[in-house]
Amino acid sequence: DAGVTQSPTHLIKTRGQQVTLRCSPKSGHDTVSWYQQALGQGPQFIFQYYEEEERQRGNFPDRFSGHQFPNYSSELNVNALLLGDSALYLCASRQSGSSFEQYFGPGTRLTVT
Amino acid sequence: GENVEQHPSTLSVQEGDSAVIKCTYSDSASNYFPWYKQELGKRPQLIIDIRSNVGEKKDQRIAVTLNKTAKHFSLHITETQPEDSAVYFCAASMGPNDMRFGAGTRLTVKP
User: What is the CA radius of gyration of chain B?
Assistant: First the structure.
């Protein structure tokens, strides 16, 4: 039973570019949340997807957008990258209607130069 | 929105001693409080969680206590071992949604 997977592992982009990160949830999970974790900080909630819709959103600008596919996998898109977007991006999944436990993927390390 | 504060930011203990990490939250509507352990370069892993209808929960050497009135909750690790060394994060949310994390506590267990 595969856990949460994310791709790519590492990514280097230039300021102003756009990036797409991908997440496959744990088997049986249908809800995906994205987090940004800056170095030495706790994860910051970006948004949550369920039934292919954004259900909740944290304090992130519209440059951050996402998508969920019918197979529950998800993408995080960031436009007009800033140096401050450099961070570890974590995806977490859970099963709706079940316990509140969510499981994290290994993350994508994004570096913006 | 919810604001979670975590103390201390670093904690060093001798192997076999106990470690306590404390968190406070601001939103009285929060009802789910998980704790995550993150080793260097790895994903956060859920180690224990508690809901607001419970005051204490224990799992072997790890326990969590919750004081809803004071809006604070704590992680207790007894008989610490070197492999307990990691960064620990507390979090709070209303159900599973919009989870807010503390800034983390770096725990070092000295052999």
Answer: 13
Distance separating alpha carbons of residues A2 and B78, to the nearest angstrom: 32
At residue A57, the 3 state secondary structure works out as strand
Q: Which of A80, A5, A11, A76 is nearest to A46 (CA)?
A: A76
By C-alpha distance, the chain B residue nearest A35 is B99
Residue A98 has pLDDT above 70, yes or no: no
Share of chain A above pLDDT 70, in %: 98
- A104: part of which helix (H) or strand (E)? strand A103-104
Q: Note whether B99 contacts A90, CB cutoff 8 Å.
A: no
Q: Confirm or reject contact between A41 and chain B (CB < 8 A).
A: yes
Query: How confident is the model at residue B98, as a pLDDT?
Result: 81
Contact between A90 and B43 using a beta-carbon 8 Å cutoff: yes
- Find all residues with CB under 8 Å of A45, minimum gap 6, and list them: A33, A34, A35, A56, A58, B98, B99, B100
| Sequence-distant (≥ 6) Cβ neighbours of residue A99 within 8 angstroms | none
Average of per-residue pLDDT values in chain B? 94
* pLDDT digit string, tens, across residues A34-50: 999 999 899 999 999 99
